[in-house]
Amino acid sequence: LSPHAPYSCGAEMYRKVRDVADEFNVVIHTHLAEGPQEIAYVRETYDTTPVQWLHSLGFLGPDVTAAHCTQLNDDDIRIMAATGTKIAHCPCCNAKLNSGTMRLRACCEAGITVGLATDGPASHNALDMFQEMKFAGMIHKDRTNDVEFLKTGELLEMATSGAAAAMNRPETGQLAPGMKADVIIVDLDRPHCLPVYDEAAALVYSARADDVVTTICDGAVLMENRVVTGIDEADIRNNFRARALDLRARSLR
After folding, report:
1. Dist. CA 134–CA 104, nearest whole Å
2. Cα 50 to Cα 34, 44, 253, distances in angstroms
3. What is the distance between the alpha carbons of residues 133 and 58, in angstroms, rounded to a whole number?
4. What is the pLDDT of residues 141-166, one digit of tens each?
5. Where are the beta strands (DSSP E) in the chain?
6. Positive or negative: CA dihedral 124, 209, 146, 174
7. What is the pLDDT of residue 122?
8. 24 burial class (0-12, 13-18, 19+ CB within 10 angstroms)?
């Protein structure tokens, strides 16, 4: 269930979503504390913060994934931690839209589950999780003035098992017996990755999305040697390009 955000959905919508989620045991995704404009709107409308408003509705909980959370104060962080609400951290999109930088260290120290995410193509053009890892590592070292904050292993974890936990997907996120076989094979023998002294560092700071050569989801091979199985990529690109340009042309008339 995905109610958009506190500035676009009212109390009745959020209460209904909570009721349905409880009845059918489904998870929830919402945008929360995404930028200064949302903070100002909720303050003017409800005289509180977005996190505290949703908490007053009984909405937050461990089945909720809140995207962005760039504008959390100390009380908000305490509420998020106490309710078990999880965070999808989208550093590239937040920087592009000047939404702010999430207080990642404070959230982690409070015990909040945080996973890396990209947001959608309307807000972030590349949707490249490797780019997201690299940017997260750089911006949080800069904001905390601590070059040791977010080591490469921690960034990889946040993009894999952390992201799975943030999406309430306990069956994936790591390679272990009993888990779903979700695997990517990455080619690090590329000019921009060489020399590889440390594989984790190469994955975080050098690799790109197009270095993925094979993708396996739940044991099914979806892409092998950079060829997506069962579809004609060239045909899809051509159709998409034509329809997108046509849509743009019609919108400008």
Report:
1. 15
2. 9, 11, 38
3. 33
4. 999 999 999 999 999 999 999 999 99
5. 28-32, 64-68, 86-89, 114-116, 183-186, 212-217, 220-224, 227-228
6. positive
7. 84
8. exposed
Helices and strands (H, E) in the chain, number of each type: 11, 8
What's the rounded Cα separation, in Å, for the pair 47 and 53? 9
Per-residue pLDDT tens for 23-74? 999 999 999 999 999 999 999 999 999 999 999 999 999 999 999 999 999 9
- Distance, in Å, from the CA atom of 33 to the CA atom of 11, rounded to the nearest integer, reads 16
Whole-number Å distance between alpha carbons of 27 and 34: 20
Amino acid at 159: A
Distances (CA, A) of 8 to 32, 76, 203: 11, 20, 38
Query: What's the CA gap between 111 and 170, in Å, rounded?
Result: 17
Element holding 80 (H helix, E strand): helix 74-83
User: Token pair of 181, please?
Assistant: 């076989």
**What amino acid is encoded at 10 in this protein?**
G
Return d(Cα 210, Cα 147) in angstroms, integer: 28
d(CA 169, CA 129): 18
Angle in degrees, 0-180, between the axes of helices 152-159 and 129-144, rounded to the nearest 10: 130
By C-alpha distance, which of 185, 188, 190 is closest to 202?
A: 188
The three-state secondary structure class of 200 is helix
